[in-house]
Amino acid sequence: MHELRTGVAFFLFLTLLAGLVRVIRGPTLTDRFIVAQLFGTTGVGVLVLLAADGDRGALRDVALIFALLAPVTVVAFVRFAIGDPPEDSRR
């Protein structure tokens, strides 16, 4: 089972590398954002798989923190893409 988990983690890592190409060549800001979300989700998956291969509870904690920070990146992207609201609508 160790080899299977390591193989799946390696495959997920390769998808991260493939996504890096889209970050560099992505035609729009939205494409780059989607890949950033892919990095977060896949990174959590890789960390959970590696944490299951032994007594690595710290990796599971890091995966949980990454998963909790993912919505923050969505909010940051929307604020950046839309811009700040006008002064009179902030009330």
Structural summary, described in words:
The chain is an all-alpha fold. The chain has one domain (2-89). Helices cover 80% and strands 0% of the residues. The protein contains three helices and no strands. Helix 1 (2-25) runs antiparallel to helix 2 and helix 2 (29-51) runs antiparallel to helix 3 (57-82). The model has no long low-confidence stretch (mean pLDDT 82).
Q: Which regions have little confidence, pLDDT < 50, spanning 5+ residues?
A: none
How many DSSP H or I helices? Answer: 3
- The dominant shape is flat
User: Residue share in helices?
Assistant: over 70%
Q: What Rg is obtained from the alpha carbons, in whole angstroms?
A: 17 Å
Write the layout of secondary structure elements.
Elements: H1 2-25, H2 29-51, H3 57-82
Helix pairs in contact: 1-2, 2-3
List keywords for this structure.
mainly alpha; flat; membrane; transport; MrpF/PhaF-like; 91 residues
Structure at a glance:
The chain is mainly α and 91 residues long. The chain contains 3 helices and no strands. It is a multi-pass membrane protein.
